[in-house]
User: Fold this.
Amino acid sequence: MALTADFIGQLRRACAPPRVLTEAAECWPYGYDNSRLHAPPGAVVFPESHDETAAVVRACREHRVALTPRGRGTGTTGAAVPQRGGVVISFERMDRILELDAANRALRVQPGATNRAVQEHCAGAGLFWPPDPGSADYCTIGGNLACNAAGPRAVKYGTPRENTLRLKAVTGAGETLQTGALTSKSVVGLDLTRLLIGSEGTLAVITEAVLKLTALPARRRAMRALYDSAEAAGEAVCAMMSQPSLPCALELMDAICLDLLRAQRGWAAPPKARALLMIEADGGDDGVREAAAALREAARNAGLIAFEEAETEDESARLWHARKTLSPVLRNFRPCKINEDVVVPVARIAELLRRLREIGERHAVAVAAFGHAGNGNLHVNILHHPCEARAAENALAEVFSTVVGMDGSISGEHGIGLGKRDFVPLEVDAATLEVMRRVRDALDPDDILNSGKALPPR
Ligand SMILES: Cc1cc2nc3c(=O)[nH]c(=O)nc-3n(C[C@H](O)[C@H](O)[C@H](O)COP(=O)(O)OP(=O)(O)OC[C@H]3O[C@@H](n4cnc5c(N)ncnc54)[C@H](O)[C@@H]3O)c2cc1C
Assistant:
């Protein structure tokens, strides 16, 4: 899409130079995300305020130019890739933390602030924002909200949808929205906050958020359990999630992950171990002791072969090490792996692990699974050579249909973007999909915002 001089002039009036890039070499880095897809935009703009953002959206609408909101491009689905060219709107310069209201446990923040900056700011007041993606050092609050990105702590504290009070945004029509309320309860009007969260920048561009904070627990205790089968680990996950003391993290690694860690990192786990659970409890001094005891008890079953509990920070780091080094190990094994994040009802985790194993065998590719077992949310990695791409794609399609058939969902936290768009009708029926498209038409009538993503075309 070639951008006219008239349009570029309008962008420059909205965001004064040098906050508009048009040189191809300067725009190039804004064409990728962690999906490894790439498409260069025609221009990149860096607004510094809500009003500047609104002016950019209005210019794009007037000239029917595609507009792609961008945090830091850590998303895994191509959602921030400007595949129709046009303009990328980057929030790098809207990264201020505006107001911490400790008494009301609320933080007003611009969308470009990183998740890490928010956590560090709140920690001083003994508070935190629960969503904690593995990319927290780089990813932005805008990106977290747009993807409803979570992480290990969601099992106890929820996702951005449960932890956001209010949003300010500009719709694709150029109108300003103020959603939600500053109070912890409100039933006035429709819940547009939850609608915008997870909509992957297809309805509106978020320019400000009021995040709902939680008190930082005084203590944490990490535990690691090894099982002789995926079924035994799945049984333990269910037992832990159905008793009152919820873990603040409950992460799983399957047999393929354990074998790769043994082979690549010399990890000394008993050969009988075929699944691992990382379990963490938090709370005050007494609370953490009680929660850990309850989780220890629930983790015990006939398939448990080893259980360790950290007494110190160093021991905790040692227990977590295997889980935290897993992603590079998988990528090292098969650089062109497919990385998905499906979710099933938690009581069906063991069944999912068995069916993934069968899918891998049927298509002759390795299907590794790890992740947020307490939410039933597993990162399914199809590890294949480039020459096995067709088999991997077929295995992926079967993973998605299997998950939907198990009352699950094809994305727990990464979103749909470009990669999974065509699988959405597996999960969402035609009539509901049409309502979603009409909502999109209402907020973005000229289809400029992240056009062609998240929902399949009509
Ligand atoms: C190493 C690594 C670990 C990860 N771990 C996790 C994890 O544990 N859990 C998890 O959920 N995800 C994880 N992710 C995925 C990713 O980090 C998250 O989805 C994150 O929220 C993306 O943030 P971002 O700022 O990079 O957004 P981007 O990738 O730039 O954009 C993502 C989406 O948000 C939209 N967007 C960005 N800003 C705005 C805005 N202001 N208004 C409207 N739309 C906007 C974009 O258009 C796009 O659709 C991981 C990624 C990596 C690379």
Q: What stands out?
A: Residues 8 and 43 are 8 Å apart (CA to CA). DSSP finds 16 helices and 18 strands in the chain. The chain has three domains: 5-90, 97-215, 219-405.
